[in-house]
Write a structure and sequence with these properties.
Blueprint: H1 3-6, H2 54-59, E1 64-68, E2 74-77, H3 79-84, E3 108-112, E4 115-123, E5 129-135, H4 137-163, H5 169-180, E6 187-192, E7 198-205, E8 213-220, H6 226-232, H7 240-249, E9 261-268, E10 276-283, H8 290-327, E11 338-345, E12 356-362, E13 368-375, H9 379-396, H10 403-420, E14 427-436, E15 442-449, E16 455-457, E17 463-465, E18 482-488, E19 493-497, H11 499-502, E20 505-506, E21 512-513, H12 515-523, H13 531-546, E22 554-561, H14 581-585
Antiparallel strand pairs: 1-2, 1-5, 3-4, 4-5, 6-7, 6-10, 7-8, 9-10, 11-22, 12-13, 13-14, 14-15, 15-18, 16-17, 16-19, 19-22, 20-21
Helix pairs in contact: 4-8, 5-8, 9-10
């Protein structure tokens, strides 16, 4: 190796940068030299100190050096290269060492004796070459660990995003097992905590295509494998063989047998107890190491949070549905000689409840108490207030049958309730008692508490407005209550409605109230319609007037005298065409 071979050459590790000056001999005097190659110039002595030879310099390179002549014979092996490649010896052919990574001209990364090495070849003068060999095991391990951690983080991020959407336990459970395959397992089984003695499970198994197959089933809580019961208690079973056998007996591991399967079970954290357990299994060629187990636990934490949220939402939805059902208006009770018709549309359709209400109660003498009212406000609070009103009426009608006095008792009860709770709520209402008349018609005694006056559809087609007035209910201790008696002949109808009908805003300009006049015109000519059809028509006409605009709660209660036979006449006539002010304005 001559001075020309190494002059101005950077070995690649950034440690040595030599200017173009004379250098000392690269090798010791005992090192073999090739033929007529010139000897390297000696290093200039620095202030009378001993000049280091090149072996001292090369020994501290990060890379090992293997220098070969033109015939491929090794002429020098640095100390670092000796440690990395003990098979390479000076004076021997490099190819004889049998190191595959040194057979390519451009070098490569290769594994040798458990270490990851990177080799590169540099051509020197006279056909000679130098191999630089570096141990990159630690850096490759760090890079692999970083990539693996990034992959785990990306998987958990995707899992968290996808599990954050389902608010239904079934969809959340299916999403959990679908996400676990194939990243965590070839087969994943999720078992929810038993409810009413039964445990539901979901399973995802790896398929040939990208999407795993997902199925589900139900087991009696007593039939769950012991490992699952233990995990539902918060433990994490570690007896792998025992666990695999139980999963196979349950039929949860299709296409796998106990000889080549590894499995893990982890609980899914819940509020007070695990929301469920997750079983993951795959072939033993990919054993679950510590990093895999930690990833499964992290995934189980996210899955448990998603399932807990979905279960909590389900429980709250069930409570809300039950409460809403109890607050919905109740259909009137059948009464002799009376045909009832109702229609109800809350202001907030998603809630199904509102501040309008109606209903009826049978009396011991054969008559019925009926009512329709509207409370202040909208939504849930108004619906709760209507529930209180209905409960009061349900109790008070047993002790008082006269409509005026019954409304005053209700007023006193509401005042006591609202004052006790610091509420300023009030209601408007029409309350009446209907009794069959000896001529086959109906006798109505109506009491008004600040509500819109009812309409009567006579057999002649005429529409009358009942002169009923009164004060609001729940405002003053002794309100003035109006009272009037109305007689319905067979085939005639009395119509009660809330202000959601008359105060509906729409029409051509979008801000005109529907009003009582348009309502009376809309029902004129409908005197032959059955009570249910009439109530439905009023709702439809009101909604047509509204278009798609916002509206108040809409409630309609119609009662029709059916005559002595108790059956209304068959409804075969056509609904009259709307003309007049409502048709002239038209819906938006």
């Amino acid at each position: 190796m001559s001075g020309a071979d190494v002059r101005d050459f950077d070995p690649g590790d950034g440690r040595i940068s030599t200017p173009h000056v004379a250098r000392a001999s690269a090798w010791s005097a005992a090192a073999p030299r090739s033929g007529s190659a010139p000897v390297l110039p000696a290093l200039a002595p620095a202030r009378a100190q001993a000049a280091p030879d090149w072996s001292e310099v090369v020994e501290h390179f990060r890379e090992g050096l293997v220098v070969c002549d033109a015939d491929g014979v090794v002429r020098h092996v640095s100390p670092v290269a000796e440690r990395l490649l003990p098979e390479v010896a000076a004076g021997e052919l490099l190819a004889a060492a049998g190191i595959g990574g040194l057979g390519r001209d451009d070098g490569a990364e290769f594994t040798h004796q458990g270490r990851r090495l990177r080799a590169r070849r540099v051509a020197l003068s006279a056909g000679r070459s130098c191999w630089y060999v570096e141990d990159v095991s630690d850096s490759v391990s760090r890079a692999d660990a970083l990539l693996a951690e990034r992959a785990r983080s990306a998987f958990l991020a995707v899992a968290g995003e996808r599990l954050g959407n389902p608010l239904h336990p079934d969809r959340a459970a299916a999403a959990v097992v679908r996400l676990a395959v194939p990243t965590l397992a070839e087969v994943a089984v999720l078992v929810l905590a038993p409810r009413s003695g039964r445990a539901r499970w979901w399973r995802a198994s790896r398929a040939d295509d990208d999407a795993p197959n997902v199925d589900r089933g139900v087991l009696a809580a007593a039939d769950l494998p012991a490992a699952m019961i233990e995990a539902l208690g918060g433990a994490e079973p570690h007896a792998v063989d025992w666990l695999v056998e139980q999963a196979l007996e349950a039929g949860w591991l299709p296409g796998l047998d106990s000889a080549d399967v590894c499995a893990r079970v982890v609980p899914l954290p819940g509020r007070e107890a695990p929301a469920g357990v997750l079983l993951v299994a795959r072939r033993a060629t990919r054993w679950y190491d510590h990093a895999d187990v930690e990833l499964i636990r992290a995934f189980a934490g996210r899955a448990g949070a998603a399932l807990t949220t979905a279960l909590l939402y389900r429980d709250q939805a069930e409570v809300a549905d039950t409460l809403q059902a109890s607050l919905l208006p109740v259909e009137p009770v059948e009464a002799p000689g009376v045909q009832w018709g109702t229609s109800y549309r809350p202001a907030q359709a998603g809630l199904r409840i509102g501040g309008d209400f109606y209903g009826s109660h049978r009396l011991a003498d054969g008559g019925s108490v009926f009512f329709l009212g509207d409370v202040s406000g909208k939504g849930v609070e108004a619906a709760v207030f209507t529930g209180q009103l209905r409960q009061c009426l349900h109790a008070l009608h047993r002790v008082e049958h006269q409509p005026g006095r019954l409304l005053k008792l209700l007023n006193d009860a509401l005042l006591e309730t609202t004052q006790a709770h610091g509420q300023g709520r009030f209601a408007t209402m029409v309350l009446g008692v209907v009794r069959p008349h000896r001529d086959g018609g109906l006798s109505l005694t109506l009491a008004g508490g600040g509500h819109l006056p009812p309409l009567v559809l006579r057999a002649s087609g005429e529409v009358e407005q009942v002169p009923l007035r009164g004060m609001l209910i729940g405002v003053v201790p002794d309100p003035r209550i109006g009272e009037v008696t109305v007689h319905l002949a067979p085939g005639e109808t009395c119509l009660l409605y809330s202000d959601g009908v008359t105060e509906a805003r729409g029409g051509r300009r979008g801000d005109d109230q529907f009003g009582t006049d348009r309502l009376m015109h809309a029902v004129s000519g409908c005197h032959r319609m059955p009570a249910p059809a009439l109530a439905e028509r009023i709702e439809q006409v009101t909604c047509d007037w509204l278009g798609h605009g916002d509206h108040d709660d809409i409630a309609v209660l119609a009662l029709r005298a059916t005559g002595p036979g108790g059956r209304p006449a068959r409804h075969l006539h056509a609904v009259p065409t709307t003309t007049g002010p409502a048709a002239a304005e038209g819906p938006r």
